[in-house]
Amino acid sequence: MRITLLTLLTVICCITTTAATTQASAKRVRNKVCPAYIYRITLTDKNKSPYSIDHPSRFLSRRSIERRKRQGLAIDSTDLPVSPHYIRAIENRQTAVIGQSRWNNTVLVEMRDTSDIQRIRHLPFVSNCRNVWQAPDSIEPTAIRTKFHDSFLPNDSIPDTMYGRAADQIQTTNGQRLHDIGYRGEGLTIAVLDGGFKNVNRIPAFSKVDIKGTRDFVFPNSPSVFYETDHGTRVLSTMAINTPYYYIGTAPQASYWLLRCEDPQSEQEVEEDYWAMAVEFADSVGCDLINSSLGYHQYDHGIGSHQLWQLDGHSTFISRTASMVIGKGIILVNSSGNTGMGGWKKLTFPADAEDCLTVGAVTEELGNAPFSAVGPTQDGRIKPDVVAIGSPATIVTGRGTIAQDMGTSFASPIICGLTACLWQALPKLTARQIIQLIRQTSRNSEHPDNITGYGLPNFWRAYMVGRIQQKSDQPSQTE
């Protein structure tokens, strides 16, 4: 289908730098918790802690520990939880601790008066206090139940195509050939970071999906992640749905954790902290891959907004965290952002992270999607890494219908699901090796650029090359 410029521009107006929300609109109401503030408190160390890297099972799951061992990765001080002694000392200052990041050694505290921060600022183990959120004057209720369809429409079926409406999304990357030989993501666990997963617990098409659990990191928590925006529903569908002749996703036999870390009420820097908390949780429960169809660069009222010079994978809180993911043996797949037609044009954070598989979008004709954010990073790395269909992508909505939607948000999970299948097929390769394998076997690998990166992946070619690599990495029988 060829999209006219007018149609494209209309759609782009609805795409934000994070996840385009598809929430039914509701009247804004006065925010009862206003005024309120959240500060990020950075600590100097992890002293006086009962935890030790010699006993990781006290703070990491068996799967998480085994994932590291399998890839020869050490557990280090960043894995240790924040010192409980320091948390108690902060709470004794009549301050509520609402979150923490062990990798960054930070805590989030909520207060009603900014002067209260002085009680914490002068504690000997506090190195910095940063205001990352203030309550908006009014909010729009988002936890709204909506009706859904019990089944797909009969005319959504394509009788002679097993993958149904999702066929092009997997076939353009040759991923169906992995499915054909039995690699559909089984044994791999994917964390999906998003703003909500409306009706995933009710729509019959998701009933066969192996959902390990859910967690909400946004303050205050929603009554249920299944009441919120259906952006996460749409993202999840591209990987997890398995309804032959209607829709089959790219990793229908993988397991999933659904993690809410995007706050639809405002766009503020604290969402980077929520994102970090979600990633660390995914690590701790043993996830193998993370899909993040989220990105940030501009915040409400300009407070905390980022600059182009920060696109180096380390200068922002979220990208610094994202660059640590590979060191835990996890593959992070992140959308490049939908800012290609705006004033910013470049990647959104954390798509600039090191060793992150950043995904841009292409059209159904495999041409560049104009809204897809471009690279390079400020330190000269090629970005995005690869591309997939996202202009438009075919998804399943929170109303249980098959539809089309625009955005790198949907190109990313298409690739994430197939990356899980590839890793299932090549289990002895490390996260870094899998990412590099995908890059080097993609269709523009000889001439990568900063619009489509290394191009469309060829997952069958990656599998064939990877088999040789995996075999050569094994010790010989005589050793």
UniProtKB/TrEMBL annotation:
Domain of life where this protein originates: Bacteria
Keyword Ubl conjugation belongs to the record: no
Domain Peptidase S8/S53: 185-455
Keywords, alphabetical: Hydrolase, Protease, Serine protease, Signal
Active-site annotation: 194, 231, 409
Signal peptide: 1-19
Pfam name, any one: Peptidase_S8
Protein family membership: Belongs to the peptidase S8 family.
Protein name listed in UniProt: S8 family serine peptidase
